[in-house]
Amino acid sequence: MIYNLINYSLEQKLYDYTLNQIDENLLEIILDDNKYLVYFSKIQGPVNKRPPAERRIQLNPKLKETLHSYMGEDYKILLLGYDKTTNTFSFWNYGYNINIRSTQSLPTRIQTLNKARSVGFDFHYYKNRNLADRPTTEHSFSINAFLFPLVLENYRIIFNRDFSEIFRKKIQSWNNRFRKDELVLCLDLYNRKFPINKNALEIKEISNYCQKRSDLMGFIPREFYYQELSAKNFRNINGISKKLENIASADPTKRYLRKGLIPDPHAKKILLDEYVTKSNSIDNKKLFEDAKKVKNKIISNSIEILIGETKIENIKNNREESYINNESHPNLLLDFDLNQIQKELDFNEGDYADPVETIIARLEATKEHNNVVNKLASICNKKKLIKKYSLNIDFYTEYKNRGKLFEIKTFNKSNFKSQLRHAIVQLKEYYFKHAVYFEKIPNRSDLLILKDTDLFLLLPSNPEDFINIEQIEFLKNQNITLCWFQNNKIETFDENQSNIKWLL
Asked: Where are the beta strands (DSSP E) in 74-155?
């Protein structure tokens, strides 16, 4: 676990480094001509009559002699303790008051670890005796484990007495850039869709992934980890869109450079090192597969999977994995923006012989669909209900602990029957996948929609001229409420309007 945490944190910074495990509890790191020797151990609880809140690691004489021998080879020594519950690393100063002749406990406190988990870092001061057997005050230093590279960058000063006052600023300046996983997601989208409107669903999807990754790594509250403005607008659609433009400026496969934009050297490094082939083209398949792996790691909601400690296939069977690997990731429910540009609709061009007629019909259908979605969202907004959607789900909300799943369909005389069938299948499929299926997957707590969810087929107008009694009864049998907009109100064939009273 510790090895993979360190490796992941260094890899995400795009360092040129070497990481070797030279013994059961010893790691060697070579970075920028600096050599580090890391002794690592799990942090232990209190023993005997020690305070209940005390946590510690121990150094025995043999280990101390081993560490001391590396100092003559210009290694910088790090004493690292790991607490899995808080996902924190703690460090102690090896250079002072280390008596190689005796076993020694190096302490911290559970309060220190908890604070490091919540705000990124904390210090624990404790009494010790120096080599002259005189009392002295020393301190341990605890951080979020993903901030490990920051310790290497500030190795010479992390145990200075005034370091705590400047460390928060160092976190904020260090953690602002896009990291490797985030850049891979952006590179993949850039490669498939650029140029792309910043309000496109795919942009919001990448934004959502980046935010979920930050949450998984424990970077909450974000104002401790990012500069104020960056924390407020963390990886929003504007940031993702701008990053795609930066990538375009840095893309070595393009013969032009977009004026006024600053190229992203980190994105360029990834492209050149991993995805640009000898023929100076992008390996589309590898990039797509790597982006898919990153998405799967993030939605696993598991640090072990994110850092490569545990493989996804080790906790899911093939059937489960095939769904999780779906490119569209419909499990990502996004907040509905009333001002957003909605997705284009699937459209049966066979209903129209003339190409121009086809285009006009597609535009009209899309406009009508978006109008229905926005009217529904406005109603829910006035009632202060949640407003969600995904790549597949048109609209989802909740009322009194029951989910409300909507499929919206436009229709005409020629396609009404097929639109009705599509809607029934989609509603049933989405409900099964997102309310039932995920429940069977181990270690998943992020179910999309509630198990108690009502299904609605919402149309832009009254379908009475096209629908027959058998179709109406079949919808009732499938527990699907057919409804439509009429004079900006939602109506059904039920005189009591019992299934939509919550919307009225």
From this structure: 75-83, 88-92, 104-109, 121-129, 135-144
The tokens for 138 are 């020393």
User: What does the alpha-carbon distance between residue 174 and residue 188 come to, in Å, rounded to a whole number?
Assistant: 25
Q: Can you tell me the distance from the alpha carbon of 485 to that of 58, in angstroms, rounded to the nearest whole number?
A: 70
Q: Please check the confidence at residue 143 and state whether its pLDDT lies above 80.
A: yes
Residue type at position 377: A
461: phi then psi, degrees, rounded to nearest 5? -155, 170
Quick one: three-class SS letters along 40-93?
A: EEECECCCCCCCCCEEEEEECHHHHHHHHHHHCCCEEEEEEEEECCCCEEEEEC
3-state class (DSSP) for residue 36:
strand
The DSSP letter of residue 23 is E
**pLDDT per position as a tens digit, 28-71:** 999 988 999 999 999 988 777 777 888 888 888 888 888 888 87
- Of the pLDDT bands very low, low, confident and very high (cuts 50, 70, 90), residue 133 is low
E-only strand ranges, 304-462: 334-335, 388-389, 395-399, 402-408, 453-459
Tell me which residue of 306, 86, 119 sits closest to 219, measured CA to CA: 119
Beta carbons within 8 Å of 151's beta carbon, 6+ residues apart: 78, 89, 91, 143, 158
The residue with greater pLDDT, 173 or 441, is: 173
Cβ-proximal residues to 326 (8 Å cutoff; 6+ apart), any chain: none
Please report the pLDDT score of residue 258 as a whole number.
Answer: 54
Domain 332-504 class, CATH top level: alpha beta
Structural element, H or E, at residue 321? helix 318-324
C-alpha distance across the termini of the chain, in Å? 54
Q: Strand 489-492's sheet: what is its strand order?
A: 334-335, 388-389, 395-399, 402-408, 453-459, 480-486, 489-492
Q: Global pTM? A: 0.63
Which pLDDT does position 29 carry in this prediction?
95
Residue type, 220: I
pLDDT tens column, 188-231: 999 888 888 888 889 999 999 999 999 999 998 888 888 888 88
Residue 192: alpha-carbon gap to chain centroid: 20
Sequence ranges of the domains in the chain: 2-170, 175-329, 332-504
pLDDT above 80 (res 468): yes
CA-angle at 460, arms to 457 and 466, nearest 5° = 75
Residues 6+ apart with CB under 8 A from 115: 121, 122, 142
Closest CA to 154 of 129, 130, 121, 126: 121
| Rounded distance between C-alpha atoms, residue 476 and residue 85, angstroms | 49
